[in-house]
Amino acid sequence: MLSVNTPTSSPDLQNLSARDKAVIWHPFTQMQTAPLPIPIVRGEGSVLYDADNRAYLDMISSWWVTIHGHAHPYIAQRISEQLKTLEHVIFAGFTHQPAVELAERLLTILPENQAKIFYSDNGSTAVEVALKMAFQYWHNLGRPRKKVVALDGAYHGDTFGAMAVGGRSAFTAPFTPFLFDVTYLPAPVAGQEDATLKLARELFTDDVAAFIVEPLVQGSGGMVMYEPTVLDELFRLARANDSLIIADEVMTGFGRTGKLFASYYLSEQPDLICLSKGLTGGTMALGVTACTQAIYDAFLSDDKLKTLFHGHSFTANPLACTAALASMDLLLSEETQASIQRISERHARFANRIQGRPTVNNVRQRGTLLAFDLNAGEQTSYFNSIRDRAYNFLLERGVLMRPLGNVLYLMPPYCTTDEQLQYAYDQVEQLLDSL
Ligand SMILES: *Cc1c(COP(=O)(O)O)cnc(C)c1O
């Protein structure tokens, strides 16, 4: 039998980087200057192994998705069973067990005002669906609203609608003319709360269709963190004008912030919630947009034009839904919940340890996510050279971290052991010494 998991240095694998270069265009990569990609052969827990059997500690959960570690045997077994039963079926006019069970179980763990689950493929599509639901909600009610309020520095995905509601940056510059207008509030970080709330009182008028936000942590914008109290206040201002509130929990969902969802830090509840990334434990691509009964009801009509005309070929793919169910079993287990606490506590201790170091600024933490700014006397920017230095320094020591500009963060899979965490912390400290 052919084993795909045997570590080997066969010429084919050695060659993979060069073959890749000949035919592949990578995401977020300047192909002219980027080094050849590292061929990864297998993964186990928090560790990835390359073609030479070199180990990399995945401290970013492979772009924030791999919450239970790589190639988890339980998720693999569940998907494999599903694969032999039903791999896919059209999701209009048909349904299946994994989709129904996942929706039922998601609704038991999401905030209690959530009533319906709409499936798509990824985080960006989950956001697109939320935006379309919000705009068409107002359209269907016969009171169209066009305005959207978002936060400066927000990231909601790379498709056009998702880009439009994200902060404008070098990444969106070529597309600016094609993005619909959005009104921005400054992120309500410590010290900025009053300024944000003051502006919010002016901006939240009765023509705002939706307020979209990454609750408590703005991920791609640089792990910018702020407090639940001010977000609750923003939610109340939006709600005073009936504006719909979209919580983009694509990154914060499924335990990352220490609670199942960041929304659980709040007293106010969002109307729509976007999920992806950790949803399937990082195994399959799946997106979810959850909404309230009131939103769902606004689409019910004898008039077919009130239908939500949106869908994707792989909507509610049974393998992806099964992966999500298996991931949820693991997530809700006592063992994983204890690990989330354990990692959060260790992060807090490490945060204390590096706080006050001259090469570190703004140490911040929410649950299993720890972030800080590297300070080497340069301006903060994604394109900072300190970013490449830090990335390479850590990679050479077998730690995969991917700074956002000068923002370094640890977002480990929950199965990461204390020893692995300590190893990563030690390498980070050596990096700080070297700056
Ligand atoms: C990653 C991310 C997205 C986009 O998800 P994709 O699956 O990459 O399309 C949207 N919102 C937030 C908050 C994210 O972190």
Descriptive account of the structure:
This protein is α/β, with parallel strands linked by helices and 435 residues long. The protein is built from 14 helices and 16 strands. The chain has a 7-stranded mixed sheet, sandwiched between helices. The radius of gyration is 22 Å and the shape is globular. The N terminus is likely disordered. Bound molecules: pyridoxal-5'-phosphate. Pyridoxal-5'-phosphate binds next to helix 6.
CATH superfamily of the largest domain: Type I PLP-dependent aspartate aminotransferase-like (Major domain)
Average predicted local confidence, pLDDT: 95
Question: Which structural class is indicated by helix and strand composition?
Answer: alpha/beta
Biggest β-sheet description: 7 strands, mixed
Q: Indicate the overall shape.
A: globular
Q: How much of the sequence is in beta strands?
A: 15-25%
Major sheet: order of its strands?
4-12-11-10-7-5-6
Helix content: 25-40%
Kindly identify the CATH topology of the largest domain: Aspartate Aminotransferase, domain 2
Q: How many domain modules? A: 2
Chart the SSEs and their pairings:
Blueprint: H1 11-14, H2 16-23, E1 40-44, E2 47-50, E3 55-58, H3 61-64, H4 73-83, H5 97-109, E4 114-120, H6 123-140, E5 147-151, H7 160-165, E6 183-185, H8 193-203, E7 208-213, E8 217-218, E9 224-225, H9 228-240, E10 244-248, E11 272-275, E12 287-292, H10 293-297, H11 318-332, H12 334-354, E13 360-366, E14 369-374, H13 385-396, E15 399-400, E16 407-410, H14 418-434
Parallel strand pairs: 3-15, 5-6, 5-7, 7-10, 10-11
Antiparallel strand pairs: 1-2, 2-3, 4-12, 8-9, 11-12, 13-14, 14-16
Helix pairs in contact: 4-11, 5-11, 8-9, 12-14
The structure holds pyridoxal-5'-phosphate.
Pyridoxal-5'-phosphate is lined by residues 122-124, 127, 155-157, 214, 219-220, 248, 250-251, 276.
